[in-house]
Amino acid sequence: MGKLVENIKGTANEVIGKAKQQSNDPETRADGLKQELKGKAQKVKGDVQGAFGDRI
Questions:
Q1: What are the pLDDT digits (tens) for 5-29?
Q2: What percent of the chain stands above pLDDT 70?
Q3: CB of 32 within 8 A of CB of 21?
Q4: Distance of alpha carbon 45 from alpha carbon 24, whole angstroms
Q5: What are the residue ranges spanned by the domains of the chain?
Q6: What is the DSSP string of 7-48?
Q7: How far apart are CA 21 and CA 50, in angstroms?
Q8: Rounded-to-integer distance, Cα 13 and Cα 21, Å
Q9: Residues 38, 45: Cα–Cα separation, whole Å
Q10: pTM for the full predicted model
Q11: How many Cβ atoms sit within 10 Å of the Cβ of residue 35?
Q12: Structure confidence at residue 12 (pLDDT)
């Protein structure tokens, strides 16, 4: 279950981050990049949890 939840959270953060990067405000674009990277990290975490059977 952890893999699915983390992958959903990760995908949501990536999408929101990409949308923020379309802003004209440099601070919002920077926040968007951070959020997109956070989403990618969450997806990796989900993959690791799936590989170890949610024991971590």
A1: 999 999 999 999 999 999 999 999 9
A2: 93
A3: yes
A4: 31
A5: 2-51
A6: HHHHHHHHHHHHHHTTSS-HHHHHHHHHHHHHHHHHHHHHHH
A7: 30
A8: 12
A9: 10
A10: 0.84
A11: 19
A12: 97
Give the tokens for residue 37: 């990277």
**Token pair recorded at residue 55:** 């024991």
Cα–Cα distance measured from residue 4 to residue 17, given in angstroms and rounded to the nearest whole number: 20
For residue 39, the tally of other CB atoms under 10 A from its CB is 22
Across 30-38, average pLDDT? 97
Tokens of 1: 């279950």
Q: Is the pLDDT of residue 31 over 70?
A: yes
Q: What is the reported pLDDT for 50?
A: 86
Tokens 């999408």 found at: 15
- Measured between alpha carbons, how far is 20 from 15 in angstroms, rounded to an integer? 9
